[in-house]
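Why does residue order matter? Because the sequence determines the fold. Keep that principle in mind as you read this record.
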Amino acid sequence: QQQRFPPPPDAGAAAAAALAAATAAAAAVDRDRDNDRDRQWDRDRDHRAGAGTGPRRPASGPTLSDEPPAVGSLHRGAVHTVKPFGVFVSIEGYRRHVLVHHSQVSEEVLLTRGDEDELKVKALEYAAPPGQRVWVKILEVSPDQNGSGFRVHGSMRVVDQDSGADLDPTGQLAAAAAAKGGGGGGRQSDEPPEVGSCHRGEVKRIEAYGVFVALQGFRKYGLVHASQVANYLEFSAEDGEAERKKALGEVVELGQEVWVKVVEVGHDDRGPKIGCSMKLVDQADGTDLDPQNLRYRPRGEGGPGGPGPRAPVGANAGEVRGGAIDWGYLATRPDAFGSSGYDLLKDDPGARGDPGSGGRAGGYPPPPQQQQQQQQLPPVGRGRAAVVPA
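Structure:
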């Protein structure tokens, strides 16, 4: 008789049961850990509440000074904010940020007023990205116009960014950059320069009607009219704008440093309008070639754009007019003779002299030496007014 055995259990079911049991045990361990952590947190909270200490506060950092840093001092800091006009740097130990004008960030950053703000920000962020550690030299501390304290201006380009060494101990580099229109240490004036003063400037734009020059130390550009660029440069009404602009571009170029004299200052809704002249200043050393202010007449006083009195004698000497040089001689009025002025002398043959009288007025005989020469040389020329050779 054959013996019968029960069938073996299913292997898959057994594995599933074992996995479920292990998962349940791990979940129980996690619950116990969470419960222990919560109980510990509750005990700490009750302990702090009973002690009256409250929640813990993070440890305080170093105390920041509300006073401005000393002018000329060097500081380590980090770039905080980038704006189109410059970079704000937070320096260690001071609460007030330092403004580094874009002209003082790096020698590789060269921006102009015509550049768009987005382009300026990108260029500055490339040279000094936010968060970067930098060295800054304090150039100027000035009162804030809003009355909220003071402003601190600094420079990065005059400090070695690797070692922090001062590259401009005398301040000459910063002063030169400020004179070119840079910020900090040499802020530009919103007031116009004085008429008759001479200034160093940089050519910023060339148009058919003239040249715009950025004057050192002044925010407003000066306009050098096309007629005031050079003595030898003149235009006619038939010249087109392209031809005028090309001719001016052959005399000056963008970025060129020139000397100008302020000859006129006007005002409109946008502020002062500064008229300048280049031909009235020696471009080699800035000497005023018209110290008496005689060679330019402002608008409304006989200059371009308005009637006015006649210029003094010699005021236009040296200028080119109609292809000829004006030497400044006094021009005689046509009505200065005749009935309204002087009477013309009548033609008197005896007074004019003839060969017999030796050419001398009044009929006086010539000296003996001249009589001998007249006998040797016959008269030459045509007509009754023949000339006796000397």
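The chain has six helices and twelve strands.
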